Amino acid sequence: LGIDLTTLGLNLNSSDNLHKTFGSPWSDEPARGEPEYCIPSCYC
Amino acid sequence: DLGAIGDNLGGSAGNSGGMHDQIYNMQMLEAAFYKLPQPKDSERVKSYVPRHPAVTPPSYPQTQAPIIDNPAFWERLGFDPIGTDTLFFAFYYQQNTYQQYLAARELKRQSWRYHKKYNTWFQRHEEPKVTNDEYEKGTYVYFDFHIADDGSQHGWCQRIKTEFTFEYNYLE
Amino acid sequence: VADPAGFRDQVAVLFSDWCRICELPATNDSVYSHYISQLQQSGLLKGDDITDRFFRILMELSVSHCVLPEQVSAPGSLSLQSAQQLQQVQQLSYFSIDSYAKLVVLIMKFCSVDQGSSKAILLPKILSVTVRVIQKDAEEKKLSFNPRPYFRLFVNWLLDLASLDPVVDSANFQVLTSFANAFHALQPLKVPGWSFAWLELVSHRSFMPKLLMCNSPKGWPFFQRLLVDLFKFMEPYLRNAELGEPVHFLYKGTLRVLLVLLHDFPEFLCDYHFSFCDVIPPSCIQMRNVILSAFPRNMRLPDPSTPNLKIDLLAEISQSPRILSDVDGALKAKQIKAEIDEYLKTRPEGSPFLTELKQRFLLPQSEANLAGTRYNVPLINSLVLYVGMQAIQQLQSKSSSQHAPAQQITHGPPMDIFLVGAAMDIFQSLIKNLDTEGRYLFLNAVANQLRYPNNHTHYFSFVLLYLFAEASQDIIQEQITRVLLERLIVNRPHPWGLLITFIELIKNPRYNFWNRSFTRCAPEIEKLFESVSRSCG
């Protein structure tokens, strides 16, 4: 009967494209993009 | 027998055109199953490119001294107040580098705690008056970028904050 | 032919010089470009046989330095499992591979055309050398082949070479197609030990989206070919309901890739559905449903369970879907296309063409074993879609010539004698003359056209319902129901055309569905029909 495809770790209702954070066919975690550290503007 | 075809009739086919037969392919696939690409196989060494490189005279070293990536160096920095400021400098101005990580780890070792909402490091100035599962409340030292009211002077400094509630869900 | 004497040592020295440069904490471009111009001056980058040898040796060196000597263990001392886990945790040092990858990237960047080499020539050449080295290594090492160094090499190249924006940089489209050709040459059927690495690279976010987005659909045929390569490899194993763990893992990975395509590039799946259905075994229902459920992003699908939904009045229902697959290739290969055209045109009474058709579908015994069925499934698929397309085309030209409003294919009694004519002769003859298995495959070919609102969905929905209504034997109605039902009871997604067809079948009294004995042939079947009809609203 197949599997519940919502359990494969992809947010199928996302309004964004999935390919940007597609980590790998083997992982149900999105790819960790580069963590964006931001310096609070008051520190600049 | 009305629907999907019964189990594969099995039987391995001869080689056709450089292709292998099904049994061979399955064996190779099983072997490959134990040598899957690992996440680290795709990870690149983070090469840090300064976004706002300070221009220095050519006589200055143009590349970072290797010691900067040595954890022991950062532990030594923590021993004096000037060193602590250096730790803060590395954390805020050397973002996305290994030294930022080392600086944060050293600050934590000296019981500084990072507040995710205020992006600020706090340290208990005395035992907190209230502590429970959600937060603690008391007087803290924190490292801040201060601008004088008249704008005359600004800079980094350590300040005291009394009656501050540090909610633990903001604790990095 | 062996390498020239001393050549390998010479390359080894050059490679260690290069690694030393890579080890420097920060090196600027002038050092790199100087090193590369020296390579050019020594004639190593001309793109000739020496160039091939040069890169082959570099690759062999970088891979050989990549794997640390394994913790030596007496063969008997480890169980298979722990030996395999040992391999899994095998410490790999990628410095040599990364250095080699970086050298190729910088050669692409700095090699100057005036010295007789250019990116357009060198990259395909380097990739074909790479393909040969991997194929040879896999053939020689077999079970002990280690795919990970080669995976690392390609990941470096995809991140550094394929990440440029192909729309801006048309030369980058060539880079992407060069990689697509290399991956096709390294497809799982050719290098089965590299299948997992291959699927991760082919679906890599620096490759798949670029190939599908750039000058779309110019890049689409390259990716369609890669997806067909994957399905062909899995096809024999997916015929069985029970999958071994490695195949199941590959299958789940494939589903993830298909879901990304369904979400981000549905038009790609829509336009190539026919060629994908040719290589997905009929028992692999959910995966096929994922492909058949794709619909263009600008389309809004009416809820199939809307009461009194007037499908005939939907604007899209009279539009032809775009089919980029080769529909009649199989018919031509079997030399029956001309006879089909002739029949559709003249519809000769008592022609032997119809009764002989069934024989044409059967595979020779030797091929039947390999195919896992006695029938030539792609030929059946091709005939069904081709004949249907001819019928729709003639129907539309007929109605436009009569200046009548586009003749709606209604789900009611056949309004147009032509529709029931030549095309339906063929379908009815097949459904009568084929045996159980053949009929199932034929009905599958029809059901594979039940997708998003378009005139194929509409026509083939009508064909199924008409065959149900006109069936001379219960078993035909049972099989039509079975083909629809087995696609509905699997986990979602379910194609829109499938739902509206089943709803029509169970709701329209004309088909007298609930009085058919097979709907009550067993308590669980009765429950199944009720639950599916409830879920269809």
Automatic annotation (TrEMBL), chain C:
<feature type="domain" description="CCR4-Not complex component Not1 C-terminal">
    <location>
        <begin position="160"/>
        <end position="532"/>
    </location>
</feature>
<protein>
    <submittedName>
        <fullName>CCR4-NOT transcription complex subunit 1-like isoform X4</fullName>
    </submittedName>
</protein>
